[in-house]
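hi! just following up on the protien thing from before. the input was this:
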Amino acid sequence: MTPHPAQRPASATVVGGGVIGLCCAHYLSLAGLDVTVLERDRIGSGASRGNAGEVCPDLVEPLGAPGVAAKAVLGMARADTPLAVRPTPHPELLGFLARLARHSTGRHHARGAAALAALARDTFELFEELAAAGADGRAEKDGYLFVYPDARSASHAQEGFRRLGAPVAAGGILGPAALAEREPALGAAARAGFLVERQWSLDPSLFVDGLSGRLRQGGVTLVEGARVTAVRRQGARTEVRTSAGTYRADVTVIAAGVWSRELCRGLGADIDLLPGKGYSFSAPVETMPARLVHLGAAKAVLTPLGDRLRVAGTMEFDRDPDRFRQRRVEAIVAAVRPYLRGVEWDRRDQEWMGPRPMTPDGLPFIGWLPGRPGVLLATGHNMLGLMLAPATGRLVGALVTGGSERSDGTGGRGGTGGVGDGAAAGRERVAALAAAFAPARGVRRSWNPLRRP
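and the predicted 3d structure came back as:
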C-alpha cells in the first residue's frame, strides 16, 4: 500500500460523480479537505441511478460463486440468459473469465464474502447518518422476499443465506398459497419462497440527488461535463486535466467506475476491470409488492418505487460500456412475466443500462495506486456499489487523512474507529480493510506512462 503523503492533505479531487465518488467526497469534506468532484456526464450517471436500490449487508458475497464462470461461458451462445457475453468473445474477456473461474471456488468465495461483510459492517448506521444529513433515499426496511419456481430451489438458496449468517425468517419455506397471501401480485410461477428480514431498499436516484445537494451546501464543488484527459503528478500535488479545465489538489481519488481503467492506464497501470452491464425498467402494476422481491430463477429484482415497479436484472459482459441492447430488456420481461400478474408490460418506461465495474475476485479496489503518489483508487464494486458507497467513502477518508474511521465520518487522527471501537482498534480495522481491498492485487501491468507499452 502506497503511504499517504507525509503532511496531512488539505485538498482532494474526486474523479467520478457516481455514488462512490459522492460518498468519497462527503467523508473527505467532513475530514476538513477542500474537495472538487469531476463528472464526465451528469452527477449520478453510469451505474448509480437505475439499479435495484438494495442495501443488504447481511447478504453480501462476491460474484464468483462456484459455477458462475461456467454459466458465463454458456451465455456466449444465448441471448436470453441472465448472465451473458456480448458480442463475440475476445482475448481480453476470455482472460477475465479465466481469472473469474480461478476465484470461483468455495475457499475464495468464503474469503471474499468475509472481506465484504467486514467493509459493510456499519452500513445501516452510515445510511441513517447520511439520511439525517439530507441524503435520504426513503429506505424501506421490511426485508426481501425470495421467490422460486419450486421448493427444492428455494431450500438450496435458503441454506446458502444461512451459511452467510443472514437473518432468514423462521417458519421454513413458503408454499404457493402462503406466497399469494403475502404478495397478491405474484403469478403462477411463484411456487416457493422465504423471507430475509431487516434488509433495506431505497430509491438510488433520490439518494444521489440528496447527497449531491448536501455536498453543494457543504462547499464541495461539483463539476459536470468534465471529461478527464490526464491525471498527473506535478511536484508535491496531483493535476487532473479535463475538458472543463485543469484541477490541482494534494490527492486525487479515481472513482470513475468502469472508466477508471482508462484513467489508470494514463498513469501507467492496467487494472483488472471489465464492464458488467445491468438493465432495468419501470412498469405500472395493479398491485404493488409490499417489499423488494428477488426472483431467484429469473435472476431479477422487483423494487417498489413510488407508483411504479422497477424491474432490474441481467449481467452482460461487453467491451462497450455505453451500448444499450433492447434485446436484454426483452429477455428480462420474458423471464419475469410468469412470476407477476397485473403488469402493463407494454407501458414500461425508464429503460436503463448501467455498466458496473467488475473485478475477477468480486472485490473492489480501495486504496493507493501502487507507485503513483497521491492517487487513490475507489472502484470495482461489482453489483454492490450503492450499498458499499458510504463504507467506501469512510475508508477513503481514513486512508487519505492517515487516521481511523469515525462514526461521524471525519476519519481523523485519534478518533474512535467505526462504532464503539478505540482509536487503536479503529486504525487496525482500517489497515485490515486496506489490505483486503488493496488495488495492487488488480494491477496486471505497470509501466512508465511516458513510454507507451
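Residues 363 and 381 are 6 Å apart (CA to CA).
The two ends are 24 Å apart (CA to CA).
cheers
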